[in-house]
Q: What sequence folds into this?
């Protein structure tokens, strides 16, 4: 069973909800895409109503991004030939069901984690953000990478367990039960209003 708890509320004005890699080709890799979109849409609406900063993280590649992937990068070297999540194509956009609105932040990355190839840290610092709520696909990709990096940057971390998914459900389960609780509070969307003090 996933290690859920009832964490102390956050200050919504110093909190960001990171919605990561919710793009059509990535969603197609998991079985429950429609349910994920529905839950995540609800979470975004609740966070927005509480004045939480909404941040969308997407992966997309321009020609120079493909060229910059070295053969030593096992996870991304196969992307170097191009054709997957090309920048400027509809497939690389955030899914239209949860499209960004004015005031939201959108960052584009070319590696797994949300921080390594973006200016996300500077944007969060400018908004005085000290707590992050994570939602993303996949659990073993962007969520795992971003959690580790953000924890090392001393953010308070919360994971929306039912807004994360992985093509390998067993990997998702192990991460949620055995790995993530050491670095983050784990809640589902039903507990989000309490976390936001509502």
A:
């Amino acid at each position: 069973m996933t290690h859920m708890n009832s964490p102390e509320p956050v200050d919504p004005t110093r909190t960001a909800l990171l919605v990561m890699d919710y793009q059509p080709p990535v969603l197609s890799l998991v079985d429950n895409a429609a349910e994920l979109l529905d839950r995540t849409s609800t979470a975004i609406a609740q966070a927005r109503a509480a004045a939480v900063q909404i941040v969308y993280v997407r992966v997309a590649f321009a020609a120079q991004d493909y060229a910059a992937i070295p053969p030593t990068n096992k996870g991304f070297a196969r992307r170097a030939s191009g054709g997957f999540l090309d920048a400027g194509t509809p497939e690389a956009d955030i899914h239209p069901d949860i499209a960004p609105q004015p005031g939201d932040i959108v960052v584009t990355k070319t590696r797994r984690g949300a921080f390594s190839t973006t200016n996300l840290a500077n944007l969060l610092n400018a908004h005085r953000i000290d707590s992050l709520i994570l939602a993303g696909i996949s659990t073993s990709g962007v969520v795992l990478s971003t959690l580790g990096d953000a924890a090392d940057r001393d953010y308070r971390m919360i994971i929306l367990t039912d807004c994360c998914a992985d093509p390998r459900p067993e990997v998702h389960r192990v991460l949620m039960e055995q790995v993530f609780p050491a670095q983050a509070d784990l809640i589902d969307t039903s507990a989000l209003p309490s976390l936001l003090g509502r």
Q: What stands out?
A: The mean pLDDT is 90. Residues 12 and 52 are 5 Å apart (CA to CA).
